[in-house]
């Protein structure tokens, strides 16, 4: 079909009766005007070339650019009050002729009435906690109290590069744990110099060893008048709580330890962490240190599982950590000694004289993608099988952040099995199951 700029030109008659192909869609059926007849006659008189006639037709059919004022007027000149549609409503034939694809008029989608159950859960722990400084023989320790102090106590301890807010804020503000906090009081202990916005420790400050950090918990319990606590630790914090429980078994009623290492550091760990501590003192938070901390918490390829969570932790390591203070904690962690735990009774041939196992109930948890799985297996082999359990949660490395629902359910069942607030925890479990069933039913109804 011959085509000129701005439209299509009808073909000459081919069916014998003078009608043209596609005349109803490409050419008006009205007779030509006087002006058109004069132009065509003038072109034949001067024997114009086909290019000239096409130029006349192109001038005739050149599109007109409509201004803002004329765009809102109809053919009669009246102003239109209707709003222009958000997308052109071409039919299939018009879209084919104009060379455009049909556009869905629903190009804008707006989400309404979307509300979070706990919108500021991560930041709300800072406002909900009472901040205290507890004096010890190795300096002051920062303790954040969350909950009613008259309730049974849970003592938490964080991992390397984190503090109580970045390590436990998301988990203890999880809906299941918020209900659990109505029956417990949580004491978040932060290692010296690791709290948010902590000043750089003096150069002559001797940082406590792992045994000294565990001994500081005795000052915390004495300061708040706590006779027995439930320990909840992650990584380095789990090692500290295990040391405290081993030294003072009458002060700990139960332990929930995540990624706990019971042995001394190996050569590879010691070498990497020694370089990290040196870089933190001299150059600050380097990319190599960040990569090692991300591997320590998330294992390999964490961005494939949760990109936003990984970026949040990277930003915290870059901006929210004092490099010098973290170097001191890392140096204390890699120089840790063995916990000297043994499953066999003392006096058994081939075991150390002072080797005993933990006497209180212990739940030993790790993630299937964590780099510390083998360490937790070794730790589990040193515990009494009658009062300990080992759990590996799938599809995660940092259990607190990646699988909080599974961890909260395991922790709830562990406390319920030890006789803590049994009736209240059972009621809480029924509420959670009822809420989950009702939400799933609503989702099915909305899909149908």
TrEMBL record:
Pfam families listed in its UniProt record: Ndr
Coiled-coil residue windows: none
InterPro entries (alphabetical): AB_hydrolase_fold (IPR029058), NDRG (IPR004142)
Gene3D superfamilies hit by this protein: alpha/beta hydrolase (3.40.50.1820)
Record field: compositional bias (Polar residues): 16-28
Residue span of region Disordered: 1-31
Family to which this protein belongs: Belongs to the NDRG family.
Record's protein name: Protein NDRG3 isoform X5
Species: Drosophila kikkawai
């Amino acid at each position: 079909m011959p085509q000129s700029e701005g439209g299509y030109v009808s073909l000459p008659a081919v069916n014998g009766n003078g009608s043209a192909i596609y005349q109803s869609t490409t050419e008006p059926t009205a007779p030509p005007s006087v002006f058109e007849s004069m132009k065509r006659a003038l072109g034949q008189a001067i024997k114009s070339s086909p290019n000239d006639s096409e130029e006349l037709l192109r001038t005739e059919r050149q599109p007109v650019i409509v201004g803002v004022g004329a765009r809102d007027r109809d053919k009669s000149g009246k102003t239109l009050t209707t709003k222009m549609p958000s997308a052109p409503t071409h039919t299939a034939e018009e879209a084919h002729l104009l060379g455009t694809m049909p556009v869905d008029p629903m190009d804008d989608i707006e989400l309404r009435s979307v509300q979070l159950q706990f919108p500021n859960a991560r930041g709300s722990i800072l406002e909900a906690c009472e901040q205290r400084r507890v004096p010890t023989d190795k300096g002051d320790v920062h303790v954040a109290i969350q909950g009613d102090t008259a309730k049974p106590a849970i003592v938490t301890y964080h991992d390397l590069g984190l503090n109580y807010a970045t390590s436990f804020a998301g988990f203890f503000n999880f809906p299941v744990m918020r209900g659990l906090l109505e029956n417990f009081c949580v004491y978040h202990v932060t290692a010296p110099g690791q709290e948010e916005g902590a000043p750089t420790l003096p150069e002559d400050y001797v940082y406590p060893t792992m045994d000294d950090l565990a001994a500081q918990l005795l000052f915390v319990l004495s300061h708040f008048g706590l006779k027995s606590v439930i320990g909840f630790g992650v990584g380095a914090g789990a090692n500290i709580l295990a040391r405290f429980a081993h030294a003072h078994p009458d002060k700990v009623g139960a332990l929930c330890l995540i990624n706990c290492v019971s042995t001394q550091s190996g050569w590879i760990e010691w070498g990497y962490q020694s370089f990290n501590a040196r870089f933190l003192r001299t150059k600050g938070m380097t990319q190599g240190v960040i990569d090692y901390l991300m591997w320590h918490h998330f294992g390999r390829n964490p961005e494939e599982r949760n990109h936003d969570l990984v970026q949040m932790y990277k930003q915290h390591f870059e901006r929210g950590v004092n490099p010098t203070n973290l170097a001191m904690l890392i140096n204390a962690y890699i120089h840790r000694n063995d916990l000297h735990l043994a499953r066999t009774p003392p006096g058994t041939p081939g075991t150390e004289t002072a080797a005993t196992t933990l006497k209180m109930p212990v739940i030993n948890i790790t993630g299937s993608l964590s780099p510390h799985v083998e360490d937790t297996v070794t730790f589990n082999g040193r515990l009494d099988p009658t009062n300990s359990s080992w759990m590996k949660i799938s599809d995660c490395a940092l259990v607190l952040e990646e699988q909080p629902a599974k961890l909260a359910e395991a922790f709830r069942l562990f406390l319920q099995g030890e006789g803590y607030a049994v009736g209240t925890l059972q009621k809480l479990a029924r509420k959670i199951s009822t809420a989950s069933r009702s939400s799933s039913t609503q989702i099915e109804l909305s899909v149908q």
